[in-house]
Every structure is written in structure tokens, then in C-alpha cells.
Design a protein that fits this description.
Length: 115
């Protein structure tokens, strides 16, 4: 079973930046599209960004222009650079394959945007 380990979250002020990382425990990582998802309290999990095996990126309207997804297949890792953070970005962030979520969810990493 593939393991996903997210890291890089924390408390940041509005307008600040964070970079999240997600490491997968399989070298088959390079054969999968990957996505970043988030779940805020009381809300359903939503996908905010995804990247294909060819490196094509897609973003939800809520983060477009502020977040950037990238991947390093040599490290089996996907990243999410988050800039101009807003309080509404507060959530637990997860990674998984995209568009379908094929692997077991990791523990996620908490991002809190607050002054």
C-alpha cells in the first residue's frame, strides 16, 4: 500500500506564503497524475490543483494565480507553493493521485491563515 506523507503546513498571516510537500512511497509515482486537496472544517474535501505526468497544471478558481503545483519524479514528491494566502485557505491539505484518488489518504498537513 502506497504511503503519502504531507508536510510544510503551519500558521501564517494573510498575504503570507507556504510551500507544502508530499512524498509518496513508490517509484511508480511518475506514472500518475497528482493532486492537492484540502478540507476545511465542516466542508467537503476539494481538489485545488493537479499536475499530469507530462507536467500540465490545473487549478481551482479559488487558488488560480496564487498557488503553483510542481513535481519531482526523482524524489517521488509533489509540491504546492502557496502565495497570497487568505483566511479562507485555512484547511488540512492532502495529496493523492488525480483525477481519481487511488491511494490511501495520508495524515495531511494543517494550514492556518490568521492574523
Amino acid at each position: 500500500q502506497v504511503q503519502l506523507v504531507e508536510s510544510g503546513g503551519g500558521l501564517v498571516q494573510p498575504g503570507g506564503s507556504l510551500k507544502l510537500s508530499c512524498a509518496a512511497s513508490t517509484s511508480a509515482f511518475r506514472f500518475y497524475g497528482m493532486g492537492w486537496y484540502r478540507q476545511a472544517p465542516g466542508k467537503q474535501r476539494e481538489r485545488v490543483a493537479d499536475i499530469t505526468i507530462g507536467g500540465n497544471e490545473k487549478y481551482s478558481d479559488s487558488v488560480k494565480g496564487r498557488f503553483t503545483i510542481s513535481r519531482d519524479d526523482a524524489k517521488n514528491t509533489v509540491y504546492l507553493q502557496m502565495n497570497s494566502l487568505k483566511p479562507e485557505d485555512t484547511a488540512v491539505y492532502y495529496c493523492n493521485t488525480a483525477p481519481g484518488q487511488l491511494w490511501r489518504w495520508g495524515q495531511g498537513t494543517q494550514v492556518t491563515v490568521s492574523s
